[in-house]
Specification:
The strands form five sheets. Strands 1, 2, 5, 6, 7, 8 and 19 form a seven-stranded mixed β-sheet that branches. This protein has a five-stranded parallel β-sheet with strand order 10-17-11-12-13. The chain has six helices and 19 strands. α1 packs parallel to α6. The radius of gyration is 21 Å and the shape is elongated. The two termini are 13 Å apart. It folds into two domains: 180 residues, FAD/NAD(P)-binding domain, CATH 3.50.50; 117 residues, 3-Layer(bba) Sandwich (FAD/NAD(P)-binding domain), CATH 3.50.50.60. The longest helix has 22 residues. With 304 residues, the chain is an alpha/beta fold. InterPro entries: FAD/NAD-bd_sf (IPR036188), FAD/NAD-binding_dom (IPR023753), Ferredoxin-NADP_redctase_2 (IPR050097), Pyr_nucl-diS_OxRdtase_2_AS (IPR008255). GO terms for molecular function: thioredoxin-disulfide reductase (NADPH) activity. Keywords: Disulfide bond, FAD, Flavoprotein, Oxidoreductase, Redox-active center.
Length: 304
Amino acid sequence: MLDLVIIGAGPAGITAAIYAARKKIDFVLVSEDLGGQTALSADVENYTGYQFITGPDLAAKFEEHLRQFAITFYNGEAVTRIAWQAEGAGGGFAVESAKASYACRSVLIASGRRPRWLGVPGEEKFRNKGVSYCATCDGPLFSKKTVAVIGGGNSALDAALQMVNIAEKVYLVDINAALGGDEIMRRKVQVSPRVEVLNNAKTVEIAGDRFVTSLKVEVSGKPRELAVSGIFVEIGSIPNSEIADFVDRNDAGEIVVDCLNRTSVRGVFAAGDVTTVPEKQIIVAAGEGAKAVLGVSRYLMQEK
């Protein structure tokens, strides 16, 4: 039986793994991908030690640091369920994926979040046929074309700023009366001659033939059809917490943790964007991952 299984290899999970390795904890790291949402970010200007670095480059730095330790890392393996072991099987937990089951004394959930869908006609039909949830991944496909970014927070502003360097024109479609996000990002978007901001704009339908050709919206209640080749949905995200439905979660599905990253179930810890920690930032997630493993270490010492 392992001492610990860490689920997720974003900033929280990777930092947790580094701290666990330094603490000589017997653990494995299991994740569907490496880097999490960091790898999907464009420009990172608020991570200590780097005045500027791209998201993929920062994710590569995380991996480089991780590889300095002899960590057992099962990449490309999505966890599907966490269960309590039967009392007669020695207690603890079983972390299950489609490939294996890992018995452990404690669990750290750092599974992050996934993009939220719009839920409008045409979205599912044109997914990966013009509809994308990652400007960093798919932006280059729309070079010199007209695109729309849906949303008004930091993720939408980030996507719009990426696309001004690639696309001919960018519509920023925001359902709110004014853009949110950081002021410095708002200013960059608002002064760009390639961006047209549509506030009070409700997305109605995504249309096309084989691929996206237009986006139907209502701007202050008036219908309008935007001729676009690509649509980037940036309306927030959903925590990947379904694997732990036995711990307390809030109305948004986030795992409730205390200041020591403990959940409502003894031996189960959580860190990063999947939790109720209010600020979803790379540097915050990394710090929470470190703090969580220090808590796990204390817990294991008490148990032993």
